[in-house]
Amino acid sequence: MTDSPHLETTPDDATGARSWRDLPAVQQPEWPDSQALRDVIAELESYPPLVFAGECDQLTERLAAVARGEAFLLQGGDCAEAFDGVSADHIRNKLKTMLQMSAVLTYAGSVPVVKVGRIAGQYSKPRSKATETRDGVTLPVYRGDSVNGFAFTPESRRPDPRRLARMYHASASTLNLVRAFTTGGYADLRQVHAWNRDFVRSSPSGQRYEALAREIDRAMNFMNACGVDPEEFRTVEFFSSHEGLILDYESALTRVDSRTGELYDVSGHMIWIGERTRQLDHAHIEFASRIRNPIGVKLGPTSTAEDALQLIDRLDPERTPGRLTFITRMGADKVRDKLPTLIEKVSAQGAQVVWICDPMHGNTFEAASGHKTRRFDDVLDEVKGFFEVHKGLGTHPGGIHVELTGDDVTECVGGGDEIFVDDLHQRYETACDPRLNRSQSLDLAFLVAEMYRD
Ligand code: PEP
Ligand code: MN
């Protein structure tokens, strides 16, 4: 990541940074205390940026390579981060899983991997209902730790704007550790075995990874013996991303970049707009259109080619490769049917967007036990469908967007180290959607690497 000597400043209204306020915004909490909200916004506006504008531009450049078909985007992390998950163990395990997946994809798929975490800011959740009822008691739904608490009590579920400041601090300490891990030696490719140490004996995917790590070692020893010891092996570029959902927060962290006079949302490198908030005439798209960060937009099975084309006009009027990523989440049973028209019409229009596959959100169901879950086979099948469609059209399957954790949870069923429906209760820890555990994540990386190579 590049350093920027420039200081960003807080924008005034003339910059358009707050134009979203004139438009309808769905999925926003009903804050009970507007003075407390104003206070916290003022506080956030005074805080230093979490990321530099120059780093956001660098990610746009990396994504431009993905758009050209020269690299692959791995975007992954929790569905919802939690304040009590800000611990060295959790962060390291997640990072380790992403680094292992990336090593598999780079080596077995022979492609550079752009690594973007759903991390250091993924604290806000869109929900299908505003309230939740249990045993005859109705309370506001949990909207993520940035808004209210997970516990089902009136106090905890009451939206509290002070949580937006906690979100900033939780993101800052997470990002600080991520930066230390990725530049301070831990992500050095010579650690390719160390990332697997606590894992190898217990799992088939861990053993498969170990064999690959041995090959990487051999290749590195060979290069070393030839006198090649590239700096690129020592550190890793790792970017942060989250859904830009709570606009009071995102807007309070928007700054004018003094290099260019442009607006950047400095709460994370990449911001995406979710399936429920991508209405063209609403506040989220307006906000996203004003900032220069690379932007993702989720496209579900009801998206039309017209929607996609209008999103391009709004968010990428200059057709800058890397600026816009479409994150398709069709469902395994619909991807082969729905995706081709979208890609064809967008390609015909000449926009170079990045296409990536979120194989999670179209494949969620409720198990008999009441757990929200996903079948690993469905996840895999959607990715397969995504690759087939791109292959058929001669376009580039640019990457995957997955919900994962480095911990051995039991939230999704299937995988090589199989988890059964009856196992779900054992370690079901997500605050929102079911995540792939480490073993399932590695399985997926091996299978995607095969698809990429074929
Ligand atoms: C998510 O990514 O966690 C999410 C809510 O996705 P979507 O907007 O695609 O439903
Ligand atoms: Mn989710």
Automatic annotation (TrEMBL):
<feature type="binding site">
    <location>
        <position position="118"/>
    </location>
    <ligand>
        <name>phosphoenolpyruvate</name>
    </ligand>
</feature>
<feature type="binding site">
    <location>
        <position position="298"/>
    </location>
    <ligand>
        <name>phosphoenolpyruvate</name>
    </ligand>
</feature>
<comment type="similarity">
    <text>Belongs to the class-II DAHP synthase family.</text>
</comment>
<dbReference type="InterPro" id="IPR002480">
    <property type="entry name" value="DAHP_synth_2"/>
</dbReference>
<keyword id="KW-0808">Transferase</keyword>
<keyword id="KW-0170">Cobalt</keyword>
<keyword id="KW-0028">Amino-acid biosynthesis</keyword>
<comment type="pathway">
    <text>Metabolic intermediate biosynthesis; chorismate biosynthesis; chorismate from D-erythrose 4-phosphate and phosphoenolpyruvate: step 1/7.</text>
</comment>
<keyword id="KW-0057">Aromatic amino acid biosynthesis</keyword>
<keyword id="KW-0104">Cadmium</keyword>
<feature type="binding site">
    <location>
        <position position="329"/>
    </location>
    <ligand>
        <name>phosphoenolpyruvate</name>
    </ligand>
</feature>
<dbReference type="InterPro" id="IPR013785">
    <property type="entry name" value="Aldolase_TIM"/>
</dbReference>
<feature type="binding site">
    <location>
        <position position="403"/>
    </location>
    <ligand>
        <name>Mn(2+)</name>
    </ligand>
</feature>
<protein>
    <recommendedName>
        <fullName>Phospho-2-dehydro-3-deoxyheptonate aldolase</fullName>
        <ecNumber>2.5.1.54</ecNumber>
    </recommendedName>
</protein>
<feature type="binding site">
    <location>
        <position position="433"/>
    </location>
    <ligand>
        <name>Mn(2+)</name>
    </ligand>
</feature>
<feature type="binding site">
    <location>
        <begin position="275"/>
        <end position="276"/>
    </location>
    <ligand>
        <name>phosphoenolpyruvate</name>
    </ligand>
</feature>
<keyword id="KW-0464">Manganese</keyword>
<dbReference type="GO" id="GO:0008652">
    <property type="term" value="P:amino acid biosynthetic process"/>
</dbReference>
<dbReference type="GO" id="GO:0003849">
    <property type="term" value="F:3-deoxy-7-phosphoheptulonate synthase activity"/>
</dbReference>
<feature type="binding site">
    <location>
        <position position="79"/>
    </location>
    <ligand>
        <name>Mn(2+)</name>
    </ligand>
</feature>
<dbReference type="Pfam" id="PF01474">
    <property type="entry name" value="DAHP_synth_2"/>
</dbReference>
<dbReference type="GO" id="GO:0009423">
    <property type="term" value="P:chorismate biosynthetic process"/>
</dbReference>
<feature type="binding site">
    <location>
        <position position="361"/>
    </location>
    <ligand>
        <name>Mn(2+)</name>
    </ligand>
</feature>
<dbReference type="GO" id="GO:0009073">
    <property type="term" value="P:aromatic amino acid family biosynthetic process"/>
</dbReference>
